[in-house]
């Protein structure tokens, strides 16, 4: 069986693994009637997406049922027992005060606004945080109770950010995936969150973290760096010896749930016919939102009023149907929004309507899906104007209801959906005037263009449906769990000096790459205080004098500095500024790795670094030929780390389009061209002395990782000290490495003597 077949097989097995889905709300809701509690299906993005998936694969769903526990508890208990038995839905019961502080408090007045880049709406009270922690804890109890070995746990959304870590503590081996339905905020805004460290640590308990778009994933990585000082790769972050996989998977819908209704539901057909008659001769614009300030309802109404005022020819020719589902009405910001929307609706219809024409039909309630699909079919234009949105399923639902390719989607560029629905007409909903112009264009779009755009969108929504999304999530989770084993296998072993000595003795062509600061000598407060002791000079001379050896001292230091300290050692190669310049031991001439190097960037970056020096007593800037370095070893440690995170985040954004990068080293931030690294230099060295049968490379910081990565598996790559590394071996400190090098030098001397 080929590898591909094996991996397909593992995906099939993954899909048949039992799933525990955990979300704030179950897809079922309790409703009180005169005959006691009754069951209702929840509406909303998550339920629309997960229901078909669970129907297919089977498993448990854990979440809260909503509603008060106090009323008619007997009938309530009966209904919940039925949910568990018939639907595999298990209700988590939160005490009333915990439920309120958790949902209306921290989740929706602290996290929701900040994650949607609305920090001005943030409200925080410490007791709502306590409720959030307690709610997450109660969810973790419920999961632990249902969990069986080999289950896959899939946690949903911002209500349960602490759950992955809580579960990791209770079930260390469990497969835990997390999907964030809402956007991840920019790294400028995320740090305003009270308890931000705990939130990131909570997420990092998962094996797999999935976002709606790559943009959100990048923002998460930037927050990790800025808040926790954690570096990550685009697809992975290491939490100690455990990998956490990062992915972007845009959620979708089950298109046939909509088209089936369109094709066969009687009430849909009847309502549709009635609307067609009612609105005949008019173009229909449709908007469907929860009444949330992130959805841009106010901005849409203002843009619509603008359109009607600026294009009088549309009078009596167009109608906007705005459906707004009431949501989170216990929160002040939502009540204020409702009042303002009501006022605007009155104003538009009062001032701009005519006795024969109501330009805006405002429906402030949830509507049945049978009715919704009819409206989608009817609408000439669907207008999605989110100011910020994780995805926005309305956009996809509308497209699913347009199999014939008619209709135009107008979509906010700030909805996650915009990342994969490029054929929509994109708008900036904050720009009232241009939004109005785009709506006008949508109304007038010629048939051919309309069909081209809608057909492309339709194909994509049908292909990338929610089943595919779910399967990809589950497969990614299984792969992430399998990666754990590989990750541990690739963790470095302790270096055994005798083994290296034997390999060294057997070899006839050897390369030894040695970093200096932190590797051969301990760090000093200032770079110039780290002059090499005699023992190091002797050791390097011994090793370099062996004719079968090429010994390279690779350092971040300048060429001039290295020459001053090591220039007299015969046979020693020198590499300065992390690989930017090389001195061949036989020619004694410094050669740059690149011939043309721009240096004008320094005048832009230097003032920024100097600003950080002003803010950080004990820190200073070092100017090298190819780089600028901010050193903060003598600064107050926590403050220094915090500022270094801030500096790197800031420089990363600023240098994004250039060949320069900002790197974190041991108590330094270095700005240098991306090509000036030890890995790049390696090619040139190996060309000068090819086909070695022994390669030894030792280093302690991130610049050495470039080298370790380039070297093959059979090289002796050695990381000095603790911390994550790609090296195959570790030694505890510089003294440990000196002992190993001494052993190598002695074995050479012994051979010469014999
Ligand atoms: P929501 O913020 O709820 O979801 P959205 O993606 O638009 O946003 O989903 C809304 C759902 O509710 C749609 O299925 C829609 O049909 C339904 N709906 C809206 N108005 C309705 C009405 N009046 N009557 C009946 N049904 C109505 C969150 C994130 C989104 C993300 C989803 C899924 O905020 O960005 O797309 O999760 O991940």
Structure write-up:
- 46% of the residues lie in helices and 19% in strands.
- It has 754 residues and is of the alpha/beta class.
- The protein is elongated, with a radius of gyration of 32 Å.
- The N terminus is likely disordered.
- The structure holds adenosine-5'-diphosphate-glucose.
Task: Tell me the layout of helices and strands.
Elements: H1 3-16, E1 19-25, E2 28-33, E3 36-41, H2 45-57, E4 59-64, H3 73-87, E5 89-91, H4 96-115, H5 126-146, E6 152-156, H6 163-170, E7 175-179, H7 196-203, E8 208-211, H8 214-228, E9 236-239, E10 242-248, H9 255-264, H10 266-278, E11 283-290, H11 297-310, E12 318-325, H12 332-352, E13 360-363, H13 369-378, E14 381-384, H14 393-400, E15 408-412, E16 425-427, H15 432-444, H16 447-463, H17 466-489, E17 493-494, H18 497-506, E18 510-515, H19 534-545, E19 549-554, H20 559-566, E20 572-576, E21 581-583, E22 590-592, H21 602-615, E23 620-623, E24 628-631, H22 637-655, E25 660-665, E26 668-673, H23 678-688, E27 694-699, H24 702-710, E28 716-720, E29 729-731, H25 734-753
Parallel strand pairs: 1-4, 1-6, 4-5, 6-7, 7-8, 8-10, 11-12, 11-14, 12-13, 14-15, 15-16, 17-29, 18-19, 18-27, 19-20, 27-28, 28-29
Antiparallel strand pairs: 2-3, 9-10, 20-21, 21-22, 23-24, 24-26, 25-26
């Amino acid at each position: 069986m080929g590898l591909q077949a094996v991996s397909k097989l593992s995906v099939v097995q993954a899909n048949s693994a039992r799933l525990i889905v955990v979300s704030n709300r179950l897809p079922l809701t309790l409703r009180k009637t005169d005959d006691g509690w009754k069951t209702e299906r929840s509406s909303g993005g998550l339920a629309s997406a997960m229901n078909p998936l669970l129907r297919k694969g089977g498993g448990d769903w854990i979440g809260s049922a909503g509603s008060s526990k106090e009323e008619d508890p007997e009938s309530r208990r009966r209904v919940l027992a039925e949910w568990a038995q018939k639907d595999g839905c298990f209700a988590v019961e939160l005490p009333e005060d915990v439920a309120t502080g958790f949902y209306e408090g921290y989740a929706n007045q602290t996290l929701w606004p900040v994650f949607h880049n609305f920090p001005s709406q943030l409200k925080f009270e410490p007791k709502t945080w306590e409720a959030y922690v307690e709610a997450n804890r109660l969810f973790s109890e419920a999961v632990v109770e249902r969990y069986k070995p080999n289950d896959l746990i899939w946690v949903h959304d911002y209500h349960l950010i602490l759950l992955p870590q809580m579960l990791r503590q209770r079930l260390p081996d469990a497969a835990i995936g997390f999907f964030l339905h809402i956007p991840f905020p920019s790294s400028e805004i995320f740090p305003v969150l009270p308890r931000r460290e705990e939130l990131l640590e909570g997420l990092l308990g998962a094996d797999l973290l999935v976002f709606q778009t790559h943009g959100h994933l990048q923002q998460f990585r930037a927050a990790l760096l800025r808040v926790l000082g954690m570096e990550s790769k685009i697809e992975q972050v290491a939490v100690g010896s455990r990998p956490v996989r990062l992915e972007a998977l845009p959620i979708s819908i089950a298109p046939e749930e909509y088209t089936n209704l369109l094709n066969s539901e009687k009430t849909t057909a009847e309502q549709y016919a009635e609307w067609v008659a009612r609105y005949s001769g008019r173009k229909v614009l449709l908007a469907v939102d929860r009444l949330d300030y992130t959805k841009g309802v106010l901005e849409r109404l203002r843009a619509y009023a603008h359109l009607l005022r600026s294009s009088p020819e549309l009078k009596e020719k167009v109608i906007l149907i705005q459906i707004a589902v009431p949501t989170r009405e216990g929160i002040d910001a939502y009540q204020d929004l409702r009042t303002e929307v009501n006022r605007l609706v009155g104003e538009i219809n009062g001032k701009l309507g005519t006795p024969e024409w109501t330009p805006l039909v405002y429906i402030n309630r949830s509507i049945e899906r049978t009715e919704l699909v009819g409206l989608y079919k009817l609408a000439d234009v669907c207008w999605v104007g989110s100011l910020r949105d994780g995805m926005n399923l309305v956009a996809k639902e509308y497209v699913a209801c347009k199999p014939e390719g008619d209709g135009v989607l107008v979509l906010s560029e700030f909805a996650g959906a915009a990342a994969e629905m490029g054929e929509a007409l994109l708008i900036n909903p904050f720009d009232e005037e241009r939004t109005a112009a785009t709506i006008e264009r949508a109304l007038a779009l010629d048939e051919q263009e309309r069909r081209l755009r809608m057909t492309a969108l339709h194909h994509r929504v049908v292909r990338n449906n929610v089943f595919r999304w779910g399967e990809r999530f589950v497969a990614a989770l299984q792969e992430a769990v399998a990666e754990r084993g590989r990750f541990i296998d690739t963790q470095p072993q302790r270096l055994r000096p005798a083994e290296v000595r034997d390999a060294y003795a057997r070899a006839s062509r050897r390369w030894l790459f040695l970093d200096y600061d932190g590797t051969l000598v301990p760090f000093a407060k200032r770079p110039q205080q780290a002059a090499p002791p005699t023992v190091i000079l002797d050791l390097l001379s011994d090793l370099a004098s062996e004719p079968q050896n090429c010994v390279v001292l690779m350092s971040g230091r300048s060429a001039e500095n290295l020459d001053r300290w090591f220039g007299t050692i015969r046979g020693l190669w020198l590499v300065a500024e992390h690989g930017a310049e090389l001195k061949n031991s036989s020619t004694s001439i410094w050669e740059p790795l690149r011939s043309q190097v721009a240096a004008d960037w320094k005048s832009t970056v230097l003032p920024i670094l100097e600003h950080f020096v002003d803010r950080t007593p004990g820190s200073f800037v070092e100017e090298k030929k190819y780089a600028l370095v901010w050193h903060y070893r003598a600064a107050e440690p926590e403050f220094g780390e915090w500022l270094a995170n801030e500096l790197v985040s800031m420089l990363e954004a600023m240098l994004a389009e250039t060949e320069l990068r900002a790197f974190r080293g041991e108590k330094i931030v270095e700005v240098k061209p991306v090509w000036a690294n030890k890995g790049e230099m390696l090619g040139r060295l190996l060309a000068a002395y090819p086909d070695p049968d022994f390669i030894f490379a030792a280093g302690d910081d991130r610049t050495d990782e470039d080298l370790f990565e380039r070297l093959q598996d059979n090289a002796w790559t050695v990381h000095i000290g603790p911390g994550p590394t790609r090296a195959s071996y570790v030694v505890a400190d510089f003294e440990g490495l000196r002992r190993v090098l001494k052993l190598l030098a002695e074995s050479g001397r012994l051979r010469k003597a014999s």
